[in-house]
Design goal:
three-stranded antiparallel sheet; alpha+beta; six-stranded antiparallel sheet; single chain
Length: about 160
């Protein structure tokens, strides 16, 4: 029993000294900053490229002029391009400035017509490309049709 009492007293002494140690510590617990550090935050915002091109789906050379106007809409909110960049318009289905028109119901009866595209680069200040189609000379009566495919491409940063 004496051993238990001695052990208990020793343990009580160790606990008492352990609780008093922080009070006996020297100095203050302060953080002293001697150097200054500058850090920056990068702020970015992306204003995406936005454009809307209007191309009529049909043109009747009998009822309209021989010009097909391709318009880059430059109204507020519909056009955002990079500085000094354009939207490029090219034609497909045309061989050496000519388009083949095929008579409806008779694929052996064809005529060719001259076709050209001016102002293939459009932007906010020059927003109309003109496709001019010359009315062909016909040998026979009938309705003749052909298709011109337009490719619209933006020449700036495609990631925008």
């Amino acid at each position: 029993m004496k051993k238990k009492g001695l052990v208990a007293m020793g343990l009580a002494g160790v606990m008492t000294i352990g609780m008093c140690v922080p009070v006996l510590a020297e100095g203050d617990n302060e953080f002293v900053k001697t150097d200054s550090v500058a850090k920056g935050t990068e702020i970015s915002v992306t204003n995406p490229v936005k454009y809307k091109v209007t191309i009529p789906s049909t043109i009747d050379l009998n009822n309209e002029s021989n010009e097909l106007l391709i318009t880059l809409n430059n109204t507020a909110g519909e056009l955002t391009l990079e500085k000094d960049k354009d939207v490029t318009i090219t034609m497909g289905g045309v061989t050496e400035g000519k388009i083949t028109l095929v008579k409806e119901g008779d694929t052996t009866d064809t005529v060719t017509s001259d076709i050209s595209l001016s102002d293939v680069k459009v932007n906010a200040t020059n927003n109309i490309a003109t496709c001019t189609i010359k009315k062909p000379t016909f040998s026979y009566a009938g309705v003749y049709k052909g298709t011109v495919n337009f490719t619209i491409a933006y020449e700036g940063d495609s990631a925008l």
